[in-house]
Prior knowledge:
Layout: H1 2-12, H2 14-26, H3 32-44, H4 50-91, H5 95-116, H6 122-125, H7 127-132, H8 137-162, H9 166-194
Amino acid sequence: MEDWIIQLVDWAGYWGVALLMLLETVFPPIPSEVIMTVAGVSAARGNMTLTGTIAAGTAGAMLGNWLWFWLAIKFGEARLHRFIDKHSRWLTLDWHEVERGETLFRKYGSTIVLVARMLPTLRSLISIPAGLFGMSHRRFLVFSTIGTAGWSAALAGVGYFLGSQFEEVERIMGPLSTAIIAAILLGYLWRLWRWKPNAEAIKPVDASSDIHPEA
């Protein structure tokens, strides 16, 4: 996969980095670990600056983050309730758990978003609860940008300072990313086998209900 990423970064520069990070956010299996380390190597070779590379990666990822956030807001609580009631078995989730998650998110939402931006897969998915649970636009943008910029800078910095040793970086980062994704998948399968609905989750949903934004 890294071959076409290298070609696009070499050809399109900052725009290529931003586009790839946007795609990575919308479609998580595209690895940002490879995108940003390749961009860092390109910066080390003088094709781009390290600062510009980090800014491009952050901008592309944040555009995708904002898209998921906006879609979650438009989807709304009432539709989410109906969706979970219908597909709770395969989601291994019921409304009672969603309410517990909302309580936790309202209390620690900013920290959760900040940390999640630096974790595989969760980097993209965290925008959905942020939108559904009414996180303010300002907090979402601030903490998402900080986390995304930190992750982009770390990866680009690795590529920049190791330069020609990119193959060694990819040899370590590739299996590590795969292992994390495999752990998430195995965790889902375990939960799917063990999960049972909570009786408290069965309650009527008011189609006109809205989640009040975070202060």
